[in-house]
Amino acid sequence: MTVPAGWLGQDRNFLGIGEPWCNPAQAGVYVMPAPYEHTSSYILGSDKGPSAIIEASQQVELYDETLDSEIYRDWGGVATAAPLDLKGKVDKAAVEAIEAFVQPHVKPGRLVVTLTGEHTGALGAIRAHARQWPDLCVVQIDAHGDLRRAYQDNPYSHASVMARVVQDGLPLVQVGIRSISPEEITTIRNTKTISTFFAAQICDPGGPYKGQAAKWVPAVVKACKGRPVYLTFDCDGLDASLVPALGTPEPGGLGWYDTLALVTALANGPGIIGMDISEIAPIEGFVAPQFTVARLIYRILGRIRAGQKRPRRAKRSR
Length: 318
What we know:
Helix content is about 30%, strand content about 15%. By secondary structure, the protein is of the alpha/beta class. The chain has one domain (about 15-310): Ureohydrolase domain (Arginase, Chain A, 3-Layer(aba) Sandwich), CATH 3.40.800. The strands form 2 sheets. It has an 8-stranded parallel β-sheet, with helices on both faces. Strands 2-3 form a two-stranded antiparallel sheet. Strand 9 (about 230-235), helix 9 and strand 10 (about 270-280) form a beta-alpha-beta unit. Helix 3 packs across helix 4. The longest helix has 22 residues, at about 290-310. The protein is globular and about 55 Å long.
């Protein structure tokens, strides 16, 4: 097999894997780079994030000692599409272009991982998955609420992307929020389809969950109400000490192992059917942030696949 046009070969793809493992004809994971940036309000450069993550991923060890397997083999391979050209497209046009880029590849049994720049790009990927799974629940790992009706008069701002998700009628579970406006607080309090787990509640040892993942992770899973999960992962949801190369960094976020505990519980419970990664703004000469994110993606892939292999309990008849 040879990699078809529109897909990246070994020297350019996510993980740097060769044939047949990078071929979309057999791969169970598709990585879709959509490097969009237009409304970033602080540090620019998130459109360089997808390529930086892919480049760094080629140094990730392919064996996962926590699962005793090479994850890419468990999936039948990981294929990486050529990056989407978004020149000349902004706001609604960019979101629609990303949706059209992702949607043909979304189907049961395949996991699509969209790498975008600013968080706005996630909206297209979420809508593509909602076409296949209209009952999905969006789980947002993020420092920011992203629930403003519009920011700087733009409803397609990165600060408004989750407002569009809620407007689409999708339930939203937010995790790690620690930077938010009064408008967004009002929206959370008045919208039954939003469940928010603030960082101060789940990460602070003095909070109601005592900073213990064993206590707060089950609550997040319960909030999904058994719906299949789409994971939208703004990297500033992690503590900025882990990933400082961000458009809008915030201290006090999720740690590495707590994040993996949450992903594992979601994968083993309702299941994760798609995901995106956003908001890495690479710092020249400093590769640790994109390597951290690349390794995290690979670990997440392993936990999603392991969750798929778990026997599911039969639903009780009424």
